[in-house]
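Supplementary notes for students who missed Thursday's class. We covered one full example, reproduced here. Read the sequence, then the structure, then the short commentary at the end.
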Amino acid sequence: MQKERPEPFITADAIAKRIRELGEAISNEYPDATEENPLALVAVLKGACIFAADLIRTLSIPCTIQFISASSYGSGTVSSGQVELDHDLAVEGRAVLVIEDIVDTGLTILKITETLQEQNPSSLRICTLLDKPSARVHPVRVDHVGFSVPDRFLIGYGIDWNEHYRELPYLALLDA
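Structure (token representation):
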């Protein structure tokens, strides 16, 4: 049985346009990136994988990519309040840009930035596809935002609900 595809909330074309804009802004922000000292991208799995893949192709500066696995949702639509991190990162002395799918309460990105700060990067910035400022519980600074969205559960473009809907080429609201 095929599941019903929800209506787009943010279209694939709008996402692609915004990612190109983010790529240009990020490239301009790191003029000192070189082949010897590239920007270190840290993509948060699993949700940011598609966003990171599309974003990296818009950058006009040398960069590397590493991954960190973070989970706070389990199988629900509300954060569990516990963040589990799994990583093998090496970012000491590097300019680091964390690529996240969504920043809502701020707990996950707070834990990730605390973990990365322990490695003493030369700089640490955050780029998120989606930002839910109205859901913020933990104060975090997000440097690059694709879209500010309402405090609703979104799916698609790599973001799942219970491991479903990641494959959608657009973002949709989940009516759960």
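Commentary. The beta strands are 39-45, 63-71, 84-87, 95-103, 123-131, 144-148, 154-155, 172-173. The radius of gyration is 16 Å. If anything here is unclear, bring it to office hours.
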